[in-house]
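Dear colleague,

Thank you for sharing your sequence with our group. We've completed the structure prediction you requested, and as agreed, I am returning the results in plain text so they can be pasted directly into your records. Please verify that the sequence below matches your submission; if there's any discrepancy, let me know and we will rerun it promptly.
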Amino acid sequence: MKIGDKVSVLDDDLKGVITSLKGETAVFRDEHGFTHQYRKEQLVLQNPHIYENLKTVQKPEIRKPVSKRHHKHHLVLDLHFENLVKNPGDYDAFERIFMQKEKLIETLDFCRKNNLKKLEIIHGIGDGVLQKMVHDYLLGQTNIDFEDHDFFYHQTGSVMVRLR
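Please find the predicted structure tokens below.
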């Protein structure tokens, strides 16, 4: 080490230029103009030229495979009758509610077999007949969670079901 060398302290966040040497002690001035004294073994020479000929190698980032079962989108079942059949006028009320219940059962079975965690059932507001059927069926099921509070009963047209 000699006067004028750039140094940094090993165990501290200090760096500067050596202004004087006194035996095993070096005095340096940091970038703010303050002087510091450290033993020579606590200082490291800064030599920016040692890195000039080194090339950096950029490695491609490895992508993690994402399971299709755990995607963020949930399955949506719309029980409006016009979405289930082509000619909704050809069916009476009993056939309608029966077909909607069969579709609900079929979809819940599909979710269980494929380990889907969320199902949104859209039943609409209307007179509440379909909503009542959906809530009654869900109450009889095990390993599911859904909102069945009286406060929301005729307020929303859908129910979110979480399968355990």
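Summary note from our side: Residues 62 and 85 are 46 Å apart (CA to CA).

Kind regards,
the structure core
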